[in-house]
Design a protein that fits this description.
Layout lengths: L8 H16 L4 H19 L6 E3 L2 E2 L4 H9 L5 E3 L13 H8 L3 E7 L13 E7 H9 L5 E5 L1 H4 L9 H8 L6 E7 L4 E7 L2 E8 L2 E6 L4 H4 L8 E3 L20 E6 L4 E4 L4 E6 L3 E8 L2 H7 L1 H9 L6 H9 L4 H15 L1
Parallel strand pairs: 1-12, 2-3
Antiparallel strand pairs: 3-13, 4-5, 6-7, 7-15, 8-11, 8-14, 9-13, 9-15, 10-12, 10-14
Length: about 350
């Protein structure tokens, strides 16, 4: 990302330190003042530069695993693998196909704070509801607002994973550490606000058109996330610049845009901020994986926070249930127990 509007490392370091300390001392006025002062310096530096640039994410067709790891994975650069999943047997992955096979099944939709478009329904960390799968599919196709994010539905219907080229993910990432699959479905106009997380991932767009906005974690101070101890960070900054008063300097940062067509696969590095909007009803799969070098080099401070300060869930709980406990019923039982203990 050479040529980007950069923030001096001293100002970034000052903000990062204050952000880290706030996880341990959430009620400290001294820490909050230091964080705000560092943020103000970052904004002042950015405003001395040119307006932020918006550039498209590269599209590559037929990229080899070796070239992908050398040009993109090792450097933390996003890329769209054009038609990367076009040859996979995903014909059954359609709204009609899901309705015929699973329409009468009951599913759970979970909306998490910071990544749900409607924050009003999430009074705590998350809000969940049960709904018949067929009814959910109907409202997605008819423009309803319900959005399935980070769903472990493939654990409920594991036969769907037979349609994926698992070897592809292992070849591209260079390992098979902690491969996890999550299902996303949303109607036209549905979206997910800006957030980032520790794991890099591939996103397979099965059907529909999906629009992404990507921002480097270099601009963490401008994103100004809350220090809430979640396993991810979230920001209320709007990519349409509609709340610049709350997020000054956002118009001066560089960002990237990606538009995914059916069959495309997007690679997103660790800790890269992203928001997503569906231009039409979509079905997609997120495949997360562990890439230690990227986790640390892309954001050392956030990796430290995730490892030693996250509490909802802790890193060790997350790793245990990612690498070892993959049974959905056991995981749900553990999550319920963890919530009761925290109360």
């Amino acid at each position: 990302m050479s040529g980007m509007n950069r923030v001096p490392w001293r100002d970034r370091a000052a903000f990062n330190l204050a952000f880290l300390l706030e996880h341990y001392f959430p009620n400290s006025d001294v820490v909050k003042r230091r964080r705000e002062a560092a943020r103000s310096r970052v904004v002042e530096q950015l405003r001395r530069r040119s307006a932020g640039k918006v550039t498209p994410v590269e599209r590559q067709d037929g990229l080899s695993a070796k070239d992908f790891r050398r040009k993109y994975l090792s450097k933390g650069i996003p890329v769209i693998l054009e038609n990367g999943a076009a040859g996979w047997p995903l014909a059954r992955w359609s709204f009609d196909g899901f309705r015929q096979r699973y329409g009468r099944e009951m599913i759970k939709l979970v909306q998490r704070r910071g990544v749900a478009a409607d924050e009003e329904i999430v009074s705590g960390r998350e809000f969940s509801e049960e709904i018949q799968f067929g009814a959910f599919l109907d409202q997605v196709q008819n423009g309803g607002g319900k959005y399935m994010r980070f769903s472990p539905l493939l654990e409920k219907f594991p036969e769907l994973l037979d349609d994926f080229d698992h070897g592809f993910f292992k070849r591209m990432s260079g390992n098979n550490w902690g491969l996890t699959y999550q299902l996303f479905m949303g109607g036209s106009g549905s979206f997910t606000p800006l957030h980032n997380a520790m794991s890099g991932f591939f996103f397979v767009n099965v059907c529909g058109v999906k629009r992404w906005e990507l921002i480097s974690n270099h601009y963490l101070a401008v994103m100004n996330p809350s220090a809430d101890g979640f396993g991810y960070n979230h920001s209320k900054a709007q990519v349409d610049l509609s709340n610049l008063e709350q997020f000054p300097g956002f118009d001066c940062i560089d960002r990237m845009q990606a538009v995914m067509q059916p069959g495309d696969i997007l690679y997103l590095p660790s800790w890269m901020w992203h928001s997503v909007k569906n231009d039409s009803p979509t079905i997609g799969i997120r495949c997360g994986f562990v890439y230690l070098k990227g986790m640390v080099t892309e954001a050392f401070t956030l990796s430290f926070i995730r490892l030693f300060a996250a509490r909802n869930p802790s890193t060790f709980q997350a790793l245990y249930y990612t690498l070892f406990k993959k049974n959905l019923a056991e995981r749900d039982k553990w999550l319920l127990t963890a919530k009761l203990i925290r109360r």
